[in-house]
Amino acid sequence: MGSAPSNAANCFELLSAEPLLVVFIGPGGVGKGTLARRVVRADNHLWLSQSWTTRERRPSENGDEYHFVDRATFEKAIEAGQFLEWAEFQGHLYGTPQPRAPDGADLLLEIEVQGAEQVLATRPDAEVFLILPPSMERLEERLRARGDDDTHVADRLASAPAELEKGHQLASHVVVNDDVERACGEILSILEELRRRRRDLSSKD
Ligand code: 5GP
C-alpha cells in the first residue's frame, strides 16, 4: 500500500482497489455452500471463509464445512472479539472469524441474513448475492436429500419467507440456483464485471 491518502479523492481511489467482499445469503438448503465451494474452485482470486458453528455435524458432511465447536468455546471467542459477525440461527451459533485471506484475495462469506446485515453495517461496499431456489418444492427436496429430519425441514421452510424478504432488501445480485453449473457461471461473470469496474476506478488516478 502506498502513502497515506491526503484527501477524499485519494481515499476513494485506495478503497476502490481494495479486495472485494462477497457475501452469499439465501434460505437453508438452497445450495449456497455447494455453490460457494464450486465458485471458489473456479476462481483463484476468491478465498472462502470457514465459519464456526455450535451445531452438530450432519452425517452427509465431511467435517471441513465448518469449524465445529461447543457453545462455551464459541461464547469465549465472541468475548475475545474473534468474529467479524456472528448470529444465532435456529438454536445454534454461527460466526465468521476475523478473515485471514491471503494478501489481495477477494473474500467470500456464506452466511444467513442477520450476519449479512452486520457485515453491511461495517462494509457497505460488500457485494451481497441472494441465492434463490427454483421453487419451494425443490427447496424441500434438497433439505430432505441432505438428511434433515421432518422437524428441521419444517423449521427451515417456515423461516424461508422471512429470510427471502430480508434477503431481497440486502442483496445487490439475485441468482437462481436451478443448476449449480449454470448458477456458478452466472456468479463468475458478475465477479468478473465487478473486478473490471474496480480496475477502471483504480486506474483513474
Ligand atoms: P446450516 O446449518 O444449514 O449449515 O446453516 C444454517 C445457516 O447459517 C445458513 O443460512 C448458513 O448460510 C448460515 N451460516 C453459515 N455460516 C455462518 C456464519 O459464519 N455466520 C452467519 N451469520 N451465518 C452463517
Can you summarize this structure?
The protein is an alpha/beta fold.
The protein's oligomeric status is: single chain
What is the count of DSSP helices, taking H or I runs of 4+ residues?
7
Total DSSP E strands: 9
CATH class of the domain at 13-49 and 105-204 reads: Alpha Beta
Summarize the topology.
Layout: H1 8-16, E1 21-25, H2 32-42, E2 46-48, E3 52-53, E4 67-68, H3 71-79, E5 83-89, E6 92-97, E7 106-110, H4 113-122, E8 127-132, H5 136-145, H6 150-170, E9 173-176, H7 180-203
Parallel strand pairs: 1-7, 1-8, 2-7, 3-4, 8-9
Antiparallel strand pairs: 3-6, 5-6
The chain binds guanosine-5'-monophosphate (5GP).
Guanosine-5'-monophosphate binds at residues 28, 32, 51, 55, 85, 87, 89, 94-96, 110-112, 114-115.
How would you sum up this structure, described in words?
The chain is globular, with a radius of gyration of 18 Å. Helix 4 (113-122) packs parallel to helix 6 (150-170). 46% of the residues lie in helices and 20% in strands. It is α/β, with parallel strands linked by helices and 205 residues long. The two termini are 15 Å apart. The strands form 2 sheets. Strands 2-7-1-8-9 form a 5-stranded parallel β-sheet, with helices on both faces. It has helices at residues 8-16, 32-42, 71-79, 113-122, 136-145, 150-170, 180-203, and strands spanning 21-25, 46-48, 52-53, 67-68, 83-89, 92-97, 106-110, 127-132, 173-176. The chain has a domain at 13-49 and 105-204: Rossmann fold (3-Layer(aba) Sandwich). Mean pLDDT is 90; it is low at 1-16. Guanosine-5'-monophosphate binds at residues 28, 32, 51, 55, 85, 87, 89, 94-96, 110-112, 114-115.
